[in-house]
């Protein structure tokens, strides 16, 4: 059975700026997110997808309130993809991405809250690469294939 949900937010990392900028849509191709500062650098880690229901809810339950984008993600979805194996596919709007690995622990999360790196060590997100390019918009459907 396919699990489905929605894209809650999408972000670009802007060259020369810290953090992420929320945008209405992302366009992806085989090299990653077009216009992102990381475009073409590491295709297997080109897209960071975070779960609102896992990451942001877990942080909130531990007294850490933060806006989307705080975890360095490109895409926030309302389902949990963290248990998917490398090679699994997600359909995001008109695109399809392939999960490549769980996101590794990032000490820079301590800038948001000192407890975050340990709290989200297994629940920060998943990296993905492009399987089928196109646009991903806030509000698009998400389906685990």
Question: How much of the sequence is in beta strands?
Answer: 35-45%
Runs in which pLDDT lies below 50 for 5 or more consecutive residues are none
Spatial ordering of strands, largest sheet: 1-6-5-9-8-7-11
CATH architecture: Beta Barrel
What does the largest sheet look like?
Answer: 7 strands, mixed, barrel
Per DSSP, the total helix count is 2
Q: Using the coordinates above, name the CATH class.
A: Mainly Beta
CATH superfamily: PK beta-barrel domain-like
Mean pLDDT: 91
Q: Return Rg in Å.
A: 14 Å
**What global shape is seen?**
globular
Count of distinct strands: 11
Which structural class matches the secondary elements?
mainly beta
Could you describe the 3D structure shown?
With 145 residues, the chain is mainly beta. It has a single domain, classed as Beta Barrel (M1 Pyruvate Kinase, Domain 3), CATH 2.40.33.20. 10% of the residues lie in helices and 37% in strands. The protein is built from two helices and eleven strands. Strands 1-6-5-9-8-7-11 form a seven-stranded mixed barrel. A three-stranded antiparallel sheet has the order 4-3-10, with no helix packed on it. Strand 1 (4-12) and strand 2 (21-23) form a beta hairpin. The longest helix has 10 residues, at 52-61.
């Amino acid at each position: 059975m396919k699990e489905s949900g929605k894209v809650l937010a999408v972000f670009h990392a802007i060259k020369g700026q810290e953090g992420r900028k929320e945008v209405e849509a992302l366009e992806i191709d085989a090299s990653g997110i077009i216009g992102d500062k990381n475009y073409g650098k590491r295709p297997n880690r080109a897209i960071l997808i975070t779960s609102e229901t896992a990451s942001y809810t877990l942080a909130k339950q531990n007294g850490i309130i933060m806006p989307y984008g705080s975890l360095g993600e490109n895409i926030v979805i309302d389902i949990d993809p963290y248990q998917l194996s490398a090679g699994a596919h997600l359909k995001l709007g008109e695109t399809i991405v392939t999960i490549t690995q769980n996101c590794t622990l990032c000490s820079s999360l301590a800038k948001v809250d000192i407890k975050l790196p340990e709290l989200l060590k297994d629940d920060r997100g998943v990296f993905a690469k492009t399987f089928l390019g196109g646009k991903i918009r806030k509000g698009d459907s998400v389906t685990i294939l």
